[in-house]
Amino acid sequence: MDSSQREWWHRHGWTIALLLTAFGLAFAIRTIFNVPVLEEFGNLYVYAGGSDSYYHSRVMTYIILNHTNLIFDPLLKYPFGAINPREPLFDWMNAILGLVFAPLFGGNANEAGAFFLNLQGPLWAALSVFPVYLIGKEVSSRRMGLIAAMIFPFLPASIDSSTLGYGNYLSFYTFVILITLYAYLRTLKATGTRRWVVSYRRPREIGRGLKAFLREERMAVKWAVFSGVCFGALALSWQGYTYFVAIVAIFLTVGFVIGRIRHVDMFGTYVVTLIVGVVGFPMAFPYYIVQHEFAGWFDLPLLLFFGALLLLLPFMFLRDVPWVFSIPLLV
């Protein structure tokens, strides 16, 4: 081991050790007390998450048997039937894992899928310590990130919905939310506050500024694309992704107001946020159309996201107008 490697381990060794400890604690707390239950009753008969867990199992089994997503379920609202309300990413993941690892369970793909369905809760809760650390590090410091990561394994609300055998997707989409938030934070950090548009009064300058931004701020653009992919994955994991959209809309509004008061150009923030939406929404669009859930579950978040951007567009164009006039105009 050369000097550079020793220096790297000296600077990051304790961080890695503490994060792995937090991961191990989070996983152990959520599993050791439930292992005897699974051993006694088997993977298919211990779902502790109520009707949601059983329905995840039903959708997973349907995918394993038919290799297609369950759209209309005749057993919902029996005898009339209804659309399957569960997003595809979680159930398809369990179904594919069940098919791949079926040989280890005597060729029974349903048994294998049920094993992974029961395992997802503690696994994703334990993995969440890493984005918790990264978010804490971004908003404060490495020490704060480590403190947050060490506290997270002991949160009662997390333990309650992520034990072995819980069989639900709460810890899974929580992990996706944390990754999406971290990616968006990194996007904003990489964007900076440089003035890319000389004057908004000349439309050609806007195009030149956009081209210059995309050419020179490649790291910010890459993080924006990654944030969009994470956002699309979130929309395919949880119908409540509207909460993330609302957070972004509120942040943009407050950020633009503060930026105007401080004479900070928000052009870069506007562009990277637009990229997040342009990448994320098309990822989820086919599912919500095919699943007949466009109305209410896709159109409202879409309108909220791009509506906020459209509302803030003229406010951004008023960058050179004193804020005592532009902010009341926004209100």
UniProtKB/TrEMBL annotation:
It is found in: Endomembrane system. It holds the Pfam family STT3. Coiled coil: none annotated. It comes from mine drainage metagenome. InterPro entries: Oligo_trans_STT3, STT3_N. One of its GO terms (molecular function) is oligosaccharyl transferase activity. GO terms for cellular component: endomembrane system; membrane. Residues 47-286 form the Oligosaccharyl transferase STT3 N-terminal domain. This is Oligosaccharyl transferase STT3 subunit. Pathway: Protein modification; protein glycosylation. Its cofactor is Mn(2+); Mg(2+). The keyword Acyltransferase does not apply. The chain crosses the membrane at residues 12-33, 92-109, 115-136, 165-185, 220-237, 243-261, 268-289, 295-318. The lineage of its organism: unclassified sequences, metagenomes, ecological metagenomes. It is a multi-pass membrane protein. The keyword Transit peptide does not apply. Keywords: Glycosyltransferase, Magnesium, Manganese, Membrane, Metal-binding, Transferase, Transmembrane, Transmembrane helix. Belongs to the STT3 family.
